[in-house]
Design brief:
It is a single chain. With about 70 residues, the protein is mainly alpha-helical. It has one domain. The chain is built from 3 helices and no strands.
Length: about 70
């Protein structure tokens, strides 16, 4: 659940997106090891996907800002 919520709020800054990745991978690993006794794998995967999307967009933003700053000089 935490991975999904942090993945959704990842647009605020990179910290929630990174935490979504951490919590998502940890929970996905625990769910896979539980042999079906724990549920929520879909939420963990969704948190991982959203986390990577926000991290990627953050990196793209930094690159575009850097290119814009360099071209103005």
């Amino acid at each position: 659940m935490a991975a999904l919520v942090l993945g959704i709020t990842g647009f605020l800054c990179c910290i929630p997106a990174i935490l979504a990745l951490v919590f998502g991978y940890i929970s996905k690993g625990q769910i896979d090891k539980s042999n079906g006794t724990q549920t929520g794998r879909g939420m963990a995967v969704a948190g991982i996907v959203l986390g990577w999307v926000w991290v990627g967009l953050g990196i793209l933003y930094v690159i575009l800002v850097a290119l814009g700053t360099i071209s103005e000089s």
